[in-house]
Amino acid sequence: MRLALLAALAAAGCWADFPPELLRPDRGTDAPVDLVADRPADRPAERGRDAAVDARGDARRDAAVDARGDARQDAASEARVDLAATDAAPDARVLLPLGSPCTSAAQCASNHCDPRSKLCCNTACAGTCQSCALAGLEGRCSFVPAGADPLGDCPASALASCGLDGTCDGKGACRNYPAGTQVSAAACAGAKLEKVALATVCDGAGTPKPGAELLCDPYTCDPGTGRCRSSCASAGECATGTCQAQKCNAKARPLGATCTKNADCASVACVDGVCCENSCGGPCRRCNLAGLEGTCTPAHAGTDPDGECSASGAPCGGLDGQCDGAGACRAWLDGTPCASASCTASELTLFGTCKAGACAKVTASCGNYGCLPAGDGCYAFCAKDEHCKPGCTCNTASWSCEGSC
After folding, report:
1. For the chain, what is the largest distance between any 2 Cα atoms, rounded to a whole number of angstroms?
2. CB 379 within 8 A of CB 369
């Protein structure tokens, strides 16, 4: 029984600590062991074997010690790595402000990455004739100005239809060809070319408006220009009478003919240098628009040919100094910028545009955080109390502003 126990210890690598004589197989399991008689020193043949056994035992103990040392070193290294990871600063990435290039909404403070302009935008900005990339308004969803279509939202109809002209109207929709757009040029009419069929123009609502027919009496129409003559070289250039001293019967001049005074015209109205159908009073009206000479017509929107309109009031509260295309001076258009980005006391103003005669501002709160030094955004994390809203403090362990403020 004792021998079996010692054999088990030997198999586990512990037998080197016991005298090998105790493991001799010639001993019975119950035979007593004479430690004095069986001492290794008394048997030279076994001393060499004992030395080899001791060497193997030492080698095994050394390997076990080395393995335990390596394991402790690995554990210490892992602990140092974990400690370094724990002490490292959290992700301090600041969310992108409006107008910044982006590829996903998660990058933007506004949570909107406009898929068309690839810029951080204040809204989804998916409507017709809306853009987040207008010059000076990057990141702010705005109506595309009238006459432009940078995103290709508006198809163009044939000019003869007076339908959509392929651009935006400045109010978030596609525009029809503007009123007064010429569809066909003025041309001579009548058996003796005694009339002018004025140009067909668009009415601004998608319908062509045929031009009126004007008598050139006493002259005829010049086929080369499609206009009434104002002088003659022969009787054939007079609708009535004869040509005398380059004048046809010296009658008053027809509509559209050049003039210097009212008495020159049959209509007794010399306006804008031509004989006009009436006195053409009021702002933003002209009687000499190309193809419409002699007809009192509203000046084109966005122009002020007679200098009758002047800008008044702050943006959104008065007139913008241009004609409106309908015979009046134009008010500031909705969508005109009236406020820029700013941040005060953790209150962020993103932008402002005119709406119904007032400046509508879009704002957002910085929460517990303060304003960036540039005044165009909020801190997303903190490193000191100055990065927080007054009344809050910076928890440098979590890089967050805390408290009731």
Report:
1. 168
2. yes
Q: What is the rounded CA–CA span in Å between residue 31 and residue 22?
A: 11
Residue 2 to residues 14, 19, 34, 149, 381: CA-CA distances in angstroms? 15, 13, 13, 102, 73
Token output for 61? 């103990």
On whether residue 99 sits in a domain, the answer given is no
Which residue matches tokens 């109809």? 157
360: Cα separation from own chain's centroid: 19
Cα angle vertex 146, ends 144, 152, to 5°? 55
How far CA 396 is from CA of 97, 236, 259, in Å, comes to 24, 98, 83
The two three-digit tokens of residue 274, written as one number: 């031509």
Look-up of token digits 């290794």: 40
Burial of 29 (C-beta count, 10 Å sphere; 0-12/13-18/19+): exposed
> What is the per-residue pLDDT across 129-176, written as a single tens digit (0 to 9) for each?
999 999 999 999 999 999 999 999 999 999 999 999 999 999 999 999
* Long-range contacts of 83-90, Cβ-Cβ distance < 8 Å, separation of 24 or more: 89/399, 90/381, 90/398, 90/399
Residue written as token pair 């209150």: 347
- pLDDT tens per residue, range 254-288: 899 999 988 788 787 999 999 999 999 889 999 99
Indicate the pTM of the whole model.
0.36
Residue that finishes a domain, picked among 333, 358, 390: 333
> Rounded to the nearest 5°, which phi and psi values hold at 70?
-60, -40
Q: Which residues 6+ apart lie within 8 Å of 323 measured at CB?
A: 283, 284, 298, 299, 300, 301, 302, 303, 304, 308, 309, 329, 330
Give the total number of structural domains in the chain. 3
Residue 362 lies in a domain: yes
* Residue span of the structural domain in which 323 resides: 252-333
User: Does a structural domain hold residue 131?
Assistant: no
